[in-house]
Amino acid sequence: MPTWTPSKDGPASMRSAAERTGSLGCCGWVIVILSGLFTICLFPFTIWFCLKIIQEYERAVIFRLGRITDRKAKGPGIFFILPCTDSFVKVDLRTVSFNIPPQEILTKDSVTVSVDGVVYFRVNDPIASVASVSNADFATRLLAQTTLRNVLGTKNLAEVLSDREGIAHSMQANLDEATDNWGIKVERVEIKDVKLPVQLQRAMAAEAEAAREARAKVIAAEGEMNASRALKEASLVIAESPSALQLRYLQTLSTIAGEKNSTIIFPLPMDVMSHFMRK
């Protein structure tokens, strides 16, 4: 003969067991039995109200006299309900995406920016999404807007513009933690656009242009310095060999002759000029 052993957890464990089995009470069972008899008596007609079909991507949460009948959702395929006492709610398990409307956010360094994004989520627990929140989709949308403002409020403007991936991961972690009790799994969050005020855009453009001009001047100065060093080395080489200067003259004449000039000036040989320079 089986014996009953008291539970270590006391009344709490008995209450949880009763909730799992969906205890209806005496009155509830009477109503369920009457509904079953009514269904059997009118079987050819009630079959159309008892059998339900849901798709592969859907699950059905069944309520019997206001209580969830099982801890696991039904589906996909065909399932049976009592027409008078049972009702069910369909839950779509596919990934849903929505746009976060542009949010006016004050960053940590007191700059107002307009930021929008996109969130991808899906229902992970159909029963929790029905029993824990009245509208899981709408609640997730509102929470995403609040989370976006909270996360960006702790960032500087430079971080908002350069670390979008880090902001998206932080938002995903916060949203996933908050929506876990609702049976929602946040799969991905992306920052779409960051809009700056017109005055700030002009200031940043002027700053970038000034930085580019400064770099251009530095590069030009370095080029002139390198060119002067090369000319100095060339002059030292030519000074060591007078014939090298004569060859340079011949290269210059060749360059001038290749162009369409009407007048060509021939320099005097260096040995003639050196004779007058010694005198």
Automatic annotation (TrEMBL):
Tree of life domain:
Eukaryota
Tell me which SMART domains the record gives: PHB
Q: Which UniProt keywords apply?
A: Membrane, Transmembrane, Transmembrane helix
* UniProt keyword Transmembrane present: yes
Residue stretches making up the Band domain: 49-208
Pfam families assigned to the protein according to its UniProt record, in alphabetical order = Band_7
Q: What is this protein called?
A: Stomatin-like isoform X2
Organism equals Betta splendens (Siamese fighting fish)
Could you read off the lineage of the organism from its UniProt record? Eukaryota, Metazoa, Chordata, Craniata, Vertebrata
